Amino acid sequence: MAGSVSNLSLQPVRRSIQAVTVLERRVVVVVYAGAMALDITGPIEVFDTANRLLDPSGVPYRIDFVSADAPLVRMSSGVVVEASPLEAGHGPIDTLLVPGGWSLHEALGDRELVSWIGGAAARSRRIASVCGGSFLLAEAGLLDGRRATTHWAYSEAMACRYPHVTVDAEPIFVWDGPYVTSAGVSTGIDMALALVEADHGSALALETARFLVLFLKRHGGQSQYSAVLDAQLADHPPIRAAQEWILGNLDHPLPVAEIARQANMSLRNFARVFRREVGTTPGQYVERTRIARARELLETTDLTIGQIAGRCGFTATETFFRSFGRTLGLTPKEYRHRFQIISPSGLIDRHHEGERSPA
Q1: What is the C-alpha separation between 298 and 351, in angstroms, rounded?
Q2: Is the pTM of this model over 0.90?
Q3: E strands present in 12-152
Q4: For residue 308, pLDDT beyond 90
């Protein structure tokens, strides 16, 4: 019944594949007891949906599950995955996918598993990991001399354990040669969409994201720390009050002296306590909050770049461009294009002719 409903729901979008007669892209997923289910199901649902939306002339994905704990492997959430023994993963592999999980410590101590991953990587066109799965790649020696990411909470531990790996805790996924490492849990979906885009083009990747009702298709350079995380408020009441005042007045100039006055503190004491409580200076926090608001408006509205700059308190568009580029490495227009804005009226996939980057 579920399969019938799925096929019916897909028919209005594009004809699904009924019989595969072309070469397949073999995706081998390494499963182990205690892995996180979403690390696995997120990416494979992307690949499966892409298959169903793929033009019949395209090359579809075939997903195989292998495990040293075969045939039935229990995830940390209790979900059970049926898998074949590791030896079933012999032969060429298009994409090797390694998940993370709460049992990662035990998995790292499984020398058979780590050795198998190293050997399978040599037979793979590309190797991808989700969350703590990057630890397993690093344990196998595959990431030495490369840049990689993992969940932000474990980035320091990874950098200490594997000093020959350049660990970048900021992006949601990192692509270095044939290795693609993604950050925490849901970012495996973003990574899988990027793989679909690399294989089949941006149109299919976007259509897949839309069909899965994803809010947007995030670029790998986007920070793990979302606008919501960036806006977390301090516990200290005066500093919290200052932060709330900043959030409510982003479209105005915000000199630090005025912010300190709102906290009813001297300028010197306010700057010291603010840095202690928030982890950054008041000026840096204001800029970061302006950029977070700008990202939200770029993703969700039709406002022009100039209008967004004004609403976020930038006195000149050129200043906005410099600050945005320094923070995210993209221009506002590039960010808007890559994140395929969603607005109340639906998906927006157009450019504003009047927007121009300053020289």
Answers
A1: 12
A2: no
A3: 25-30, 61-67, 72-74, 80-82, 84-85, 93-98, 124-129, 147-148
A4: yes
